Amino acid sequence: MKIALIIAFIGHIICGITDCMLAYTSEGRFDMSRDTKDPERMKKLFERMPLRQIELSMLIGVFALFMAGFGFVGLALWAAQFSQAAGTVMYISGLFFIVPIAAHHVLCCAVEWFYVKLGRTDEALKNVLLFFKRTAATAAAYAGLLVFCVTLFILTVSGRTYLPRWCCVFNTLAFFIILAPTKLPAKGNIANALMFLCLAFAV
After folding, report:
1. What secondary structure, in 3-state letters, does the chain show?
2. Residue range 1-12, pLDDT digits in tens
């Protein structure tokens, strides 16, 4: 169990790094919601972006999320000792997060790869954004993460496990609330990594 959680911790750290490989170029930080509205800004940001960097982010990121899967499945099986219903919900929601989020990561990488490969033209930007919007349903994976974390929180705070009730704060939601106001990159991955690290010592 502890090994599975440590593997998940490492996986999310690696995944956070691959997210930074997409978000940071030699010309600055890429902000999807802001920069895609400015074609000239996009051309400048990705002027020296190597395709190999995007490809590595894609491949390593998928492997990292596979590693993270050990933690979600491990926690679901652990929770089932105390509540079969909670364990089942966490197992299904954990898989609902990991599988689509891996696809989402690949699609985000594909958007950048094709934009650079097609010459960073206005037409290229228009087409990759259309592609991104039509495949955005994979972001529904975050609903799975939300259900997983809420279930874990309720199970812990209700005293159904052998953990002290205060261990309910060892949760992605709690860590994300703390991290959200900061300018740290890959906040979701950091929050997940902290949850798995803390629980690895707690369980």
Report:
1. CHHHHHHHHHHHHHHHHHHHHHHEECCEECCHHHHCCCHHHHHHHCCCCCHHHHHHHHHHHHHHHHHHHHHHHHHHHHHCCCCHHHHHHHHHHHHHHHHHHHHHHHHHHHHHHHHHHCCCCHHHHHHHHHHHHHCHHHHHHHHHHHHHHHHHHHHHHCCCCCCCHHHHHCCHHHHHHHHCCCCCCCHHHHHHHHHHHHHHHHC
2. 899 999 999 999
